[in-house]
Design goal:
The structure holds two protein chains of two kinds.
Chain A lengths: L10 H19 L8 H20 L4 E3 L4 E3 L1 H20 L1 H7 L3 H20 L3 H19 L6 H32 L4 H10 L5 H18 L7 H8 L2 H26 L4 H24 L4 H21 L2 E3 L5 E3 L1 H32 L10 H4 L1 H15 L5 H15 L3 H26 L11 H4 L6 H19 L2 H15 L11
Antiparallel strand pairs in A: 1-2, 3-4
Helix pairs in contact in A: 1-2, 1-5, 2-3, 2-5, 3-5, 3-11, 3-14, 3-21, 5-6, 5-11, 6-7, 6-11, 7-9, 7-10, 8-11, 10-11, 10-13, 11-13, 11-14, 12-13, 12-18, 13-14, 13-17, 13-18, 14-16, 14-17, 14-20, 14-21, 16-18, 16-20, 17-18, 17-20
Chain B lengths: L2 H21 L3 H25 L3 H5 L6 H39 L13
The chains are: A mainly alpha, B mainly alpha.
């Protein structure tokens, strides 16, 4: 009985951890004037990590430590996606950090640790590992949210975030201990085996799974567990808000997708209606409350709650019961979730980056202050409009294609009403996105109006932000008109989820 | 002592923690209540690993397989992890509460109302 530990396979994770430590300690050594290179060192490390992952793990299916860590196409897809996303956030925050955050080393170092947490969430094959990875992400986020130490909004939101975050972890852990008590295992496939053998759910298992769903619901901010999100999003430094809205959500869905498709799929009849209800409530409430927001970060927070609703629709349709009564994994749904996550991430990051640049110039996040943006900076307002159109799901932009994938999967799985509701919700979202665009392009100052913050300020877009916005702009269009490559990658990742891994694990379980 | 008794203690603790976390308005009290919830988790996990006989063990009661060891130890592993994570969580939480206190002179969460809506 030798433990099956091919440590080489973990090289990309080691690179990430080492990079985090390196950036943190370089911050101590470097003189203040030279600290501008820290993010670029970090980005170089992230590129190295992605490259090694792609080289080492391409076409490789392996389980490490007896299935605790799973390396397959699915993990690889999310590794590449999440690390690139983290790198994009890092580049996008260079200007903001220079202006508003006093501790660049801490910011970038902790950002890299949180990326490590995210990728581990996608590759965890067991509840406890998934929990620890999630805490690595959450702890990093608590610190990142609080990094504008002298800003009272930043403090307040961090305090709210950690109190509710710790509360939700405790709830989720109680669920995990219940599930472990009833099934005798914390491994996803062990839970699946238990569910197949005992189709009638034990009451302890129902309680445990509900608590786990509640805990995960907190992390992705699904209604009714969403109360923390708007406040935290508003108070956090803007790049961190972007990261919260995109990265932590994508990682949580990576975890949810693996847990639900590898672990809980046999009991889908018992949870699909629950998840569908959550999805419906989330998309309706998120999109409706977004309408009356005056602060653009808050509006984007509610809109991202709405997006979680669409993603949960995908989760609810993860499995279809065939004529013989057997549960069949729906690859379409999981592909839809992954594709939508990518499209949503690109568009949302672009929107938040524009908000960050505008805030750096004007000091305001109010939607009413966006009047005159098109005159001051046509480029910014163009990217902002495309990003918002993409989030709303207009054709030619990323959001349309990705929503198309997701909603068809939902309709196929028998959730026609939910897919219809999602489309109506998208229409509603178009209304409040258009309000911002109208502010930027159409509104003229009438007689006696005060100048808005945008009109008052001198405007320029820093080079790094300018380039990053360009990349995201191209990305949104590219996914919108030519999604095949992305869909193929997501497809092969879903394949990995759908098949039983044929690996020899030394540790039995 | 049976599994039911210990689980009862654990669930009562969890409920007390839940009540405290929801009803108290002092941030430190909330953190303490959350700590109680974490400890309820520990008790439940340890109780399960002590009292449940794995199905695999009942077939071959004599041979101690690696499977059996792993099953018996998962609960204890879980509680060790939880203790560590909870300590880190509370350390961070208290640090943030101190930052808030320095700025506002209060740790009452009902006063954290700069943002709402």
């Amino acid at each position: 009985m030798s433990a099956n530990v091919n440590v080489n396979l973990l090289t990309p994770e080691f690179i990430l951890a080492g990079m985090g430590l390196l950036v943190l300690s370089l911050d101590l050594v470097l003189p203040k004037a030279r600290r501008g290179i820290l993010p670029w060192i970090g980005v170089a490390g992230l590129i190295a990590a992605v490259a090694t992952a792609l080289i080492y793990r391409w076409d490789r299916v392996e389980e490490l430590y007896g299935g605790v860590f799973i390396a397959d196409r699915y993990s690889l897809f999310f590794f590449a996606f999440l690390v690139i996303l983290g790198g994009a956030v890092m580049i996008a925050s260079v200007d903001y950090v220079k202006q508003h955050i006093k501790f660049p080393g801490e910011y970038y170092g902790i950002l890299i640790f949180s990326i490590l947490g995210m990728v581990l969430m996608a590759s965890a094959g067991e509840l406890l590992t998934a929990y620890i990875a999630m805490e690595l992400l959450s702890f990093s986020l608590y610190v990142l949210v609080a990094l504008r130490k002298y800003d009272s909004k930043s403090n307040e939101s961090a305090a709210k975030y950690i109190l509710l975050g710790a509360f939700s972890s405790a709830i989720m852990l109680y669920g995990i201990s219940m599930v472990w008590g009833v099934t005798g295992t914390t491994f996803y496939d062990g839970i699946a085996a238990h569910l197949t053998a005992n189709p009638d759910l034990d009451i302890g298992l129902i309680v445990g799974l509900s608590l786990i769903v509640a805990g995960l619901g907190f992390k992705v901010a699904a209604v009714p567990f969403h109360m923390w999100a708007p406040d935290v999003y508003e108070g956090a430094p803007t790049p961190v808000t972007a990261y919260l809205a995109i990265g932590s959500k994508a990682a949580a869905f990576a975890l949810i997708l693996r847990l639900f498709s590898e672990g809980l799929l046999p009991a889908i009849e018992d949870w699909r209606v629950l998840i569908a209800t959550l999805a419906a409530a989330t998309m309706v409430l998120g999109n409706l409350v977004a309408i009356r927001q005056e602060n653009i970060k808050r509006m984007l927070a509610y809109s991202s709650i709405g997006q979680v609703g669409y993603l949960l629709l995908g989760v609810a349709s993860l499995g279809v019961v065939d004529a013989g009564g057997a549960v069949v994994f729906s690859e379409r749904a999981s592909t839809g979730i992954m594709v939508h996550l990518v499209g949503y991430a690109v568009a949302n990051l672009a929107a938040f980056l524009v908000v960050a640049v505008v805030y750096s110039r004007t000091g305001s996040d109010q939607i009413s202050d966006y009047r005159g943006l098109a005159k001051k900076s046509p480029y910014l307002s163009l990217v902002l409009s495309v990003a918002l159109f993409s989030l709303a799901g207009l054709p030619f932009f990323a959001g349309f294609v990705t929503k198309f994938y997701l909603f068809t999967a939902g309709a196929e799985a028998g959730f026609l009403w939910l897919s219809g509701l999602a489309m109506v919700a998208s229409l509603v979202s178009l209304y409040y996105y258009l309000r911002v665009i109208q502010r930027a392009y159409v509104d003229q100052p009438s007689e006696g109006d005060e100048e808005t913050a945008v009109e008052r300020s001198t405007f320029f877009v820093p080079l790094t932000s300018w380039l990053m916005l360009g990349v995201l702009f191209v990305g949104m269009i590219l996914i919108g008109v030519w999604p095949t490559e992305l869909a193929a990658a997501a497809d092969s990742a879903s394949d990995a989820l759908g098949t039983v891994r044929d690996v020899s694990t030394a540790l039995v379980r | 002592m049976t599994l039911e008794n210990v689980l009862l203690v654990s669930s009562v603790l969890f409920a007390i923690g839940l009540y405290g976390a929801l009803a108290k308005s002092n941030a430190i009290m909330i953190l303490m209540s959350i700590e109680i919830m974490f400890n309820a988790v520990n008790i439940a996990a340890i109780a399960f690993s002590r009292f449940t006989v794995p199905a695999g063990l009942t077939d071959t009661p004599i041979t101690v397989t690696q499977q059996a060891v792993q099953r018996a130890l998962t609960g204890q592993m879980l509680s060790v992890f939880v203790i560590t994570a909870a300590a880190a969580e509370v350390a961070l939480g208290l640090a943030l509460v101190i930052v808030v206190y320095r700025q506002r002179g209060t740790v009452d969460v009902t006063d954290l109302t700069e943002m709402s809506g």
